[in-house]
Input
Amino acid sequence: MKSNRAKATQPKIHDSAYKKLFSNRTIFQQLVETFITETWVKELDFANCETLDKSFVADHYKETESDLIYKLKLRGKTIYIYVLLEFQSKVDRFMALRVLYYILSFYMDYRMNHRRIKKLPAVFPIVLYNGKAKWTASSDIQDLIESDPYLGEYAAQFKYLLLNEKTYSKEQLLTIRNIVSTLFLAEGHYDIELLEQELLNLYEQESDKQAVSLFLNWFRQLALYGKVSPEDYEKLDYVYRTKEEVQTMLVATLQEERQKVYQQGQTAGEAVGIVKGEAVGIVKGEAVGLVKGQRQTLLLLLQYRYQLSEAEQANLAEQLAKITEAHSLTALTNHGLQAASFAEFKSYLLGYLPTDSGV
Output
């Protein structure tokens, strides 16, 4: 499922609605065909693929991950693709061990239900990660086992494929332009204006209206309420009939999203300003505190919209510290809500800085 945007309106993604998205055959096919580069992917038979109604995630990890198992045909043989949806904020160094445990649990279950088999089916393991923290865990279990003494071919061997949503650039995702790439775009490069246009284009270009409607409804529920409650799952299945209907929904949803961001930023800024003002204890001190609160509001807003790095945040804070007029910070906040990119905002910021300052 984080940044300050997460604290404001970014939803808690680790719910079964995210699993519902990838349970859709079209969305799953786009995930595999777009983001798995193995040559055999081109030979998969998606027409008759199906999901298994089972989970092998350990009980104490249910809150931070979910799993999907797809059964497909490859060159006439049955294979399985195991997708672990990983949402926790801290990266588990022993993820390879966990995934191996889940697959072995699947194999034990499979063996119990297919007693006459001579060989187990092939399973391709994927970890789909959308957390903010940098992924540092090795995907190879051999990196988790002492190499001394060396055991050669008898040492345990296992590896999974990591799909880290945040590692794909905006340019890469805008080149792909399908449901999954737009999901990754929303997760990793949140820009309201860009998303509004991309979602409209996606609906117009995607032939599977049911799949794209599922994604649009999921996005709407999370933008408005921060999560998709079980009682709202039926709303995910609504199929939009026209692009105009989608546009009407997005205008209303994203306008409320913009207002929510602004109000939460204002509340945070006012709270900081009041605290600072009380600390000074005089009218002038209150005014200074409120200006500091406005700076904090603006910093939160820009980090929310443009996913700033720590270096960018530090540089921006240094620049904003040079602006002492409340009306200038108010104007910059409005620019922050409207600018299409951080570069565009910085061009506005330049006009409010003292002449001896640089951006």
Notes: The chain has two domains: 4-171, 264-350.
